[in-house]
Amino acid sequence: MNVLSVIHGDNVRAGIFGEMVEERGHELDEWSLAWNRPLARPLDEYGAVLAFGGAMHADQDDRHPWLRDENFFLQRVLGLRIPVLGVCLGAQLLAKAAHAPVHPAGEPEIGWLPAELTEEALDDPLFGRLPQQFQAFQWHYYTYGVPAGAEELAYSHVCTQAFRLGESAWGIQFHAEVTQDQIQGWIDEEGHELPVPRQVLAEQTRAHISEWNEIGRMLCGGFLEVAERVGAPV
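Above: the chain sequence. Below: its structure as C-alpha cells.
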C-alpha cells in the first residue's frame, strides 16, 4: 500500500508512524504543498494519508497561501474516502476542510498533559485499544471545533483532543508520532518560551516516551489496519 505523509516543516515528520508504515510492508511518500511540486503518484493510488504538524496556524492563509491549496486537497481526500489521520496542525486542517472552525485555544498546551477518552472512543478501531486516561505530549496554541457529524474521541481540560469523521477520517490534537529526538529538537529551538524549564521537559520526556511511543504505535497500527481493510491499491 502507498501511504502519503503530508508535512509542514523539516522537524515535524512521521516519526514512529513512519516506522509503523515500513514495518507493515507499505511505502511512505513524503510531500508538502509548500514545495509547489506535484505528488509522486495520483492521489487515488494512495491507500492512506497522514497529515502532520507545523509551526504555522491553520488560519494563516495570508502568510502561507499554500494552506488554501491544502484545504482543497484535504477536501478531496475526504471526498474520495481515502483513510486519513491528521496530527496537531494536520487535525486542525482536516477539521477546517470539513467546515469546522479553527481558532486559538483558551491556553497553549505544551509538554506532558493528561487526556481522557470519551465514551464514543470505546469501540473506535484506533482508540478502543487505548487506556481511558493517559499523559499526552502536546505542542499547540490553536484548536478546532469538532466537525458536524463527527464523534469526539478524546479531550483535555483545555480543548477537544481527537475526533472521527465518518468511517475513514481521524484527527488527533496531541503528538502521538513523536520520537524522543524530535521532542528534543523542539525543546532546543530558540525563539519561543516554554511553560516549564527546558531541562525539566527533557527529563519528563525521558520518563514518558517509552509508554507514549507504545500508544502511538497502537493508534497508527489501528489506522493502518483500517486502510488495509479498505483494499487500497498496491
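Residues 126 and 219 are 5 Å apart (CA to CA).
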